[in-house]
């Protein structure tokens, strides 16, 4: 944050920061969901089959695949295990 002289300036900066963080969280959720859907479809599984293997409901899996939820690490671990995959998290340089 830059130097500011008023509450209204700070408020505007915070709005931009929150919007950016919310956008990035939504982007990540969408990309994760799309990747899981691709992996599930390659195996010929339904959402119900994957959900059962991951200890979830079909509706929760549908929301996840659509990018409608921001999953916790334990949920990601369960989905990865159900897909017979290993969860790998990487930090990469920002462009």
UniProtKB/TrEMBL annotation:
Give start and end of each HTH cro/C1-type domain: 36-90
Origin superkingdom: Bacteria
- Establish whether keyword DNA-binding is in the entry: yes
The record, for Pfam families, names: HTH_31
Please state the span of the N-terminal signal peptide per the UniProt entry: none
UniProt keyword annotations, A-Z: DNA-binding
Classification via InterPro entries: Cro/C1-type_HTH (IPR001387), Lambda_DNA-bd_dom_sf (IPR010982), TransReg_Diox_bact_type (IPR050807)
SUPFAM superfamilies in the record: lambda repressor-like DNA-binding domains
Q: Which PANTHER family match?
A: HTH-TYPE TRANSCRIPTIONAL REGULATOR, METHYLPHOSPHONATE SYNTHASE
Spell out the protein name for this chain: Helix-turn-helix transcriptional regulator
Q: What is the lineage of its organism?
A: Bacteria, Bacillati, Actinomycetota, Actinomycetes, Pseudonocardiales
């Amino acid at each position: 944050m830059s130097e500011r002289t008023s509450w209204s300036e700070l408020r505007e900066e915070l709005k931009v920061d929150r919007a950016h963080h919310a956008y990035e969280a939504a982007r990540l959720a969408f990309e994760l969901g799309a990747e899981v859907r691709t992996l599930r479809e390659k195996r010929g599984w339904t959402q119900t089959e994957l959900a059962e293997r991951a200890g979830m409901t079909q509706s929760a899996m549908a929301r996840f695949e659509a990018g409608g939820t921001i999953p916790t690490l334990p949920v990601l671990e369960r989905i990865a295990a159900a897909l017979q995959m290993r969860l790998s998290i990487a930090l990469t340089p920002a462009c």
